[in-house]
Amino acid sequence: MIFVSGAGGFIGGRTVEILLTQRGYSHVRAGVRGWASAARVARYRGEIVKADLLNEEELSSALRNMSYVIHCAYGSDGATVDGTRNLLQAALDANIKKFIHLSTISVYQNPQGTIDESYPVGTTNNDYGDSKFEAEQLCWEYSKKGLPIVILRLPIVYGPFSRNWTIHISEMLLQRKLGKIEGFGEGKCNLLFVDDAVDAIVHCIESDKGNNMVFNVNGPEVISWNEYFEMFNDALGLPPLERVQQRNARIKAVVGESIRVVGRYVQKHHMGLVKFLAAHSQSLDKLLRTTERHLRSTPALSELKLYDKEAIYSSERLKTVLGFSAGTPIRKGVAISSAWLKEQGVFWYEETP
């Protein structure tokens, strides 16, 4: 009996699919924050329940008669931390056999070189990473209370339905806003295909080892970000990537960040007025939409910093303790991702005659 939080999301949804269709688990309960996010998992025979992480009553009901919890859900900073605390307490009350918490490599502080699980972790001024670090600390608190915990630190997880690392990348490639970025793009790209992430989760469920331990999970190979862009670009059938000078990439990112700062201020204090003006001015509405598309398809400063990072996350402990190694080569994962984009109509490209 397995409960999956965040089943309406990218990894949670794929976890439910694989458990039900490939792994033979018939008793899977998919937890969603709202019914609008249930469409993907509703195609299968598993049970779907409303399980808002901030609603303790819903969580208690969702974990009734469950044996395992796979915690994939996250939200705003408060929802991730407070919600994890609520789910841990519900799991402790329900005598859950094992609680598998999905974390991130973003908890590592100033990573350089080869990073294993002994590398220092903490806050890094990254909202997502900081909330996951706090959630990890809660997991260790509850492990001391008797709840068996396994933490999996995931890298860049890509594949069908990945908003950040599949759909967003393809949009930037289509808009010709990505190229072989000098300097920045030569950093290490730690990629994990989503099915491999789910396989690691299943290994945690099916093994009696690894309780109260943390594991890095990584793909079978590490390439540069430029290599990933080029491989993805070729799989989508786009014209060859152009080389982007490091200085030009930085200038565009700085300008874009300035616009984002102004946009966040306007959104917080004057959004009603902007909506009113846009509704009465086609020119303003068009300008706002064009600006939004431009910002979405241009690498931000935070993305350039990620592309420049020289770190490789070792998953040797996972192989040694649980006998798991990811098996999907990047080229195969990219081919599957690009085929899905085209099949779903998320991506299309027609060369101009």
Give the averaged pLDDT, no decimals.
90
Q: Strand arrangement, largest sheet? A: 3-2-1-4-5-7-11
Major sheet attributes: 7 strands, parallel
End-to-end Cα distance, whole Å, is: 56 Å
Strand content: 15-25%
Question: What can you tell me about this protein's structure?
Answer:
The protein is an alpha/beta fold. The chain is built from 13 helices and 14 strands. The chain has helices at 10-21, 56-62, 77-93, 127-144, 163-174, 194-206, 225-235, 246-269, 271-279, 282-297, 301-307, 316-322, 330-343, and strands spanning 2-5, 28-32, 47-50, 68-71, 98-104, 113-115, 149-154, 156-158, 180-181, 188-193, 213-216, 222-224, 243-244, 311-313. A 7-stranded parallel beta sheet has the order 3-2-1-4-5-7-11, sandwiched between helices. β4 (68-71), α3 (77-93) and β5 form a beta-alpha-beta unit. α1 crosses α6, α3 (77-93) packs parallel to α4 (127-144) and α7 crosses α13. The longest helix has 24 residues, at 246-269. The protein is globular and about 60 Å long.
Quick take:
The chain is α/β, with parallel strands linked by helices. 47% of the residues lie in helices and 16% in strands.
List keywords for this structure.
single chain; 13 helices; 353 residues; 47% helix; 14 strands; alpha/beta; globular
Chart the SSEs and their pairings.
Blueprint: E1 2-5, H1 10-21, E2 28-32, E3 47-50, H2 56-62, E4 68-71, H3 77-93, E5 98-104, E6 113-115, H4 127-144, E7 149-154, E8 156-158, H5 163-174, E9 180-181, E10 188-193, H6 194-206, E11 213-216, E12 222-224, H7 225-235, E13 243-244, H8 246-269, H9 271-279, H10 282-297, H11 301-307, E14 311-313, H12 316-322, H13 330-343
Parallel strand pairs: 1-2, 1-4, 2-3, 4-5, 5-7, 6-14, 7-11, 8-10, 9-13
Antiparallel strand pairs: 10-12
